[in-house]
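Q: I'm writing up a methods section and want to include an example of the input and output format. Could you take the sequence below and give the corresponding predicted structure tokens, formatted cleanly so I can copy it straight into the document?
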Amino acid sequence: MRIFSRKFGCLPAAALTVALLPTAAHGSQAHDPGPTVSESGGTLTVDVPRAHGSPGYSVSLPTDRQIALTTRKSGHTVLSTGPDALRFRAGGTWQHATTLTGWRWQDGTLTLTTGTTLPGTRVEARLTPTTDRYQLDWQVTGVEAEQLGLSYDLGSAGHWYGHGETSTPSGGPYTDQPWPLDAGQVEQADFGPASYQMVDPFWYTESSTGLYVDTGDPMDVSLNAGGDGLGRFTVASGQPYRATVFVESTPRDVYRDYIGIVGKPRQSDATYEQYEKPLWNSWAQFYTAVDQQKLLDYATALHDAGVDGHTIQLDDKWESNYGNLTFDPKAYPDPKSLSERIHALGDDFGLWVTLWINLDSTNYQYAADHDYLLRDAADPSKPCTVSWWNGTAGIVDLANPEAKAWYQANLKKLMDTYDVDGLKFDTRFFDDHCAPREGHTRTDYQRLGSELADSYDLQGAGIRVHWGATAHQAGFVIRQIDKGTGWNSLKASVSQNLALSTIGYPFVETDMIGGSSGQPAPAKEVLVRWAQSASYMPLMYASTSPLGTTDVTTGQRVDYDKETVDLYRAAIARHERLAPYLWDQVRSTLKTGDPIVRPLFFDFPEDRASYTIDDEWMLGPAVLAAPNLTSSAARDVRLPAGTWYDVNRGRTVKGPVTLKAYATPLAVTPAFVNLHAEGAAKALTALRGR
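A: Here is the clean output for your methods example:
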């Protein structure tokens, strides 16, 4: 063991170097060089050599001015901290680490101490380098800190990705999802395990670096907020800050490193048929103005027009009161008959459910009396109450086995009585206004929710669990948060799938085709383009009928023409033909953890033009989708290096090339097959229509 330490002002300032003696492991040779630490010219540097396919890197920090961390690869900066790199909040004010006061290199860990802007306190940090990443752990001593945060200069690493669904001043996550993240402004103060938005504390960059913050506490995350060019990653806790910084050769390598930590899916909760055919859900078609006859008419019309799918799912507003898990007898006089008639059409029947029990539900008082509800964080003597779009509710506490058993018994009675095939779980399994049950954390409720949902057929509607190994490994289909019904929401649905898919949730679908979110019914062109886009996603999640709908904002009937129906039907048919290829991608993902929907630069990292493309994607290794997501009559299409078959024009194109003003009349959805990629033959068969 080599140990080297220094307190500044006590030792001469000569250049010094110390190496960590390597040990033979994972096939390495005993003479392989390990990380080294050197100090010279006012800079302390950790050097990590190339090894085992990793590119090697260095991390340096000044010894004579305010601490900052600069990561370099092949002599180029690939990530740098921003101003006030290590900052903390104490006593209601923000402070930060200042100048290095000492360091120690022992057993492969560089321990650093710094002063701070708050007298009587210091920061202690530990940097532990390995071949393709380094661990950065730090804490504040001398005061009880309330929050700890890292800041980065976004521009130092090129473009940024990851995060999940974004809150933005421009309407995200409903109508805006910047891709890359630095192309917009992200301001998310409720970023955490209990968030309704699908988020993970993982970000990766154009320079093939990445950041993973290992915490179960809520975070306040901002990227380029106000156009400041900074990424701030603040944990709402004074506990030690634990971060992993990845340094790799490509962004896809960074993604794989992250999946190595959180795990890949062990299964897919959707069946082959659910990948092959659309799921039809009632929400955007009716919102809460739905009843038994309307749903049956909807299902029958879709079936007769040949645009049906595998399931008719009755969404919100079927219960007598929220949480009763009983049908409203006025709107649903004979739910058993409804189920039977939907089954007779060849569809499964599903219901929307939630663990949120409104205070006016007959089940609420029973649950409260039996301690089946989450407790209030401020006053644990009473149940926690939360406000949502349907009133005020308590939440079933899944950490209480008796509460879970009671809730599932109610579900079983409901499903058995009315022959319900599956469920769509909505809302969250935990809320930050509530207190976790003793011995549990916020993250545990993601696990408990996953375990509950895994007991049921989710019918391709999936679920919204995130943050932690259980959510990643469960293999749920992930549906996006509600979108609007305009072009901006269609575009956001694409970039959001790219974001979700590349933080470790590969079985993605857009929000309901055509959008929802209580906005005016989608225009014909938006509905058609959305269906075309979704046909090149793993699953199709549908609601607004191409036969016609009701505008929720006016109450007026909106009819679509025959062309709308024909083009929607064509999109479904294309997706069905792609099903064998898609199923191959599902099985591949279960082996590798790689995303099915991914940005072009995952497969073509040398294609610099692809790092800002937000309206094209690879569907597996062989299919490049470039649907028109705007009202324009043409679009540019970027094709990276390779030999591509143009599905619409029946020609071969050599890349790299940008096809300018590719004509896209409403019946045309640009798509290309990489002829030398795995799965190309199967994709060609599907997309040629024979």
